[in-house]
């Protein structure tokens, strides 16, 4: 009798497990249609997505109850061709769509904007073109929108008054032009705003930053914005990074910058600012001016402010200490904590909370790193690693890309051709 009960329980468990991985027929058809219309890595994806239990497919996440697909994460899969909008539009319950670091072309399909439940949308680092549709306003639940490093053009649609849940907005490195949309002022929850490296023009004061009190990072560098620094930025009391370099700003550096008590990075270089660096700037504990007197007048001259910053002028350099900033160079050796390496190759970085924004063949040890590039060696715990051909060890890492070798436990891994060992 006991054996029969155990057998019955086992069969129930198998049925429940099978049900947990099953998915709604509409979502199954939509995913099959999506994969069927892809070039490049689409062939590998079609081979990997077999059977009818799509909730168990790589990159797919379901709600676990009704078997509705809520997550689609396929960054760095080598997918190419136009975005299969009709198929994506069939995923009616989709909440997160991450298709960055692929080779999608063409414009964003209108059917994509019918997914009104979307909370996170990323197409960063593709080859998308055209203008951004005003239908973007339909995605009222977005908390993250990343369309950076594409080939979009035209004006930014003035629809952000309908996207008040946004926390992260990044559209840098495109061809957007025209003036800043005033509706950006409505983003009450926004913490990151990155529109650098576009062709935006007109007064920067078209945006009232008082409407974005939670902003921690503003990056409008490498545009054609004009006018003086708007005093409304002073209301962004949580601001840690402000980059307005390479624009057409005029006037003086205002004294209200000293009110930004959390500011750690300030770049106003290559504008038409005149006058002295305000004395109050030196009162900010997180900032020290570098390479020029705080009283020196300047016009179109670099002003970089970064806590304990040291700029590399020759290679190779060896830097020790904490909170260093490595702007460029090759073959550098950096130790300490809270370092930032923006560019360079063959760097060796140790310590904690480091950021490597780009570069190749870096060796990193420590914890809490953010790494992008290729052929990096990363050890220890709690890293975010993007790129290809990386070697990652430790635990609790998030890894995207292809041909990575991952060892340790509790990783979140996206990509193809991985070797994973550990739990």
From TrEMBL:
InterPro entries: IBP_b_roll, Leu-rich_rpt, Leu-rich_rpt_4, Leu-rich_rpt_typical-subtyp, LRR_dom_sf, LRR_N_plant-typ, PGIP, Serralysin-like_metalloprot_C. Keywords: Glycoprotein, Leucine-rich repeat, Membrane, Repeat, Signal, Transmembrane, Transmembrane helix. Its main location: other. GO terms for cellular component: membrane. PANTHER family: ICE RECRYSTALLIZATION INHIBITION PROTEIN 1, POLYGALACTURONASE INHIBITOR 1. Belongs to the polygalacturonase-inhibiting protein family. This is Leucine-rich repeat-containing N-terminal plant-type domain-containing protein.
């Amino acid at each position: 009798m006991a054996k029969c009960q155990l057998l019955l329980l086992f069969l129930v468990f198998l049925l429940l497990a099978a049900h947990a991985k099953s998915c709604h027929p509409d979502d199954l058809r939509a995913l099959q249609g999506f994969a069927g219309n892809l070039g490049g890595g689409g062939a590998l994806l079609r081979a990997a997505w077999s059977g009818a239990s799509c909730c168990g497919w790589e990159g797919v996440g379901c709600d676990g109850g009704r078997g509705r697909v809520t997550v689609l994460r396929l960054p760095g899969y080598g997918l190419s061709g136009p975005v299969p909008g009709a198929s994506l539009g069939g995923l009616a319950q989709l909440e997160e769509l991450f298709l960055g670091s692929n080779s999608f072309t063409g414009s964003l399909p209108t059917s994509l904007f019918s997914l009104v439940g979307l909370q996170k949308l990323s197409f960063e680092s593709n080859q998308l073109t055209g203008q951004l549709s005003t239908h973007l306003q339909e995605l009222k639940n977005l908390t993250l929108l990343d369309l950076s490093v594409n080939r979009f053009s035209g004006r930014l649609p003035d629809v952000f008054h309908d996207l008040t849940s946004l926390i992260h907005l990044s559209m840098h490195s495109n061809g957007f032009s025209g003036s800043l949309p005033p509706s950006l002022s409505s983003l009450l929850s926004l913490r990151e705003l990155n529109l650098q490296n576009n062709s935006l023009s007109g007064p920067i004061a078209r945006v009232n930053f008082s409407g974005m009190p939670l902003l921690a990072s503003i990056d409008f560098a490498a545009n054609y914005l004009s006018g003086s620094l708007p005093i409304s930025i002073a209301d962004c009391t949580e601001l840690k990074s402000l980059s307005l370099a390479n624009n057409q700003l005029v006037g003086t550096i205002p004294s209200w910058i000293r009110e930004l008590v959390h500011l750690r990075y300030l770049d106003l270089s290559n504008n038409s600012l005149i006058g002295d660096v305000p004395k109050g700037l030196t009162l900010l504990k997180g900032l020290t001016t570098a390479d020029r007197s705080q009283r020196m007048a300047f016009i179109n001259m670099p002003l970089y402010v970064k806590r304990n910053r040291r700029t590399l002028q020759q290679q190779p350099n060896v830097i020790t200490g904490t909170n260093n900033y490595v702007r460029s160079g090759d073959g550098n050796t950096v130790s300490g904590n809270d370092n930032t390496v923006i560019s360079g190759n063959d760097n060796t970085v140790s310590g904690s909370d480091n950021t490597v924004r780009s570069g190749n063949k870096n060796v990193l040890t420590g914890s809490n790193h953010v790494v992008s590039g290729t052929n990096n060696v990363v050890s220890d715990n709690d890293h975010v690693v993007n790129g290809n051909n990386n070697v990652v060890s430790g635990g609790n890492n998030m890894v995207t890309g292809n041909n990575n070798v991952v060892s340790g436990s509790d990783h979140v891994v996206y990509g193809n051709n991985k070797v994973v060992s550990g739990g």
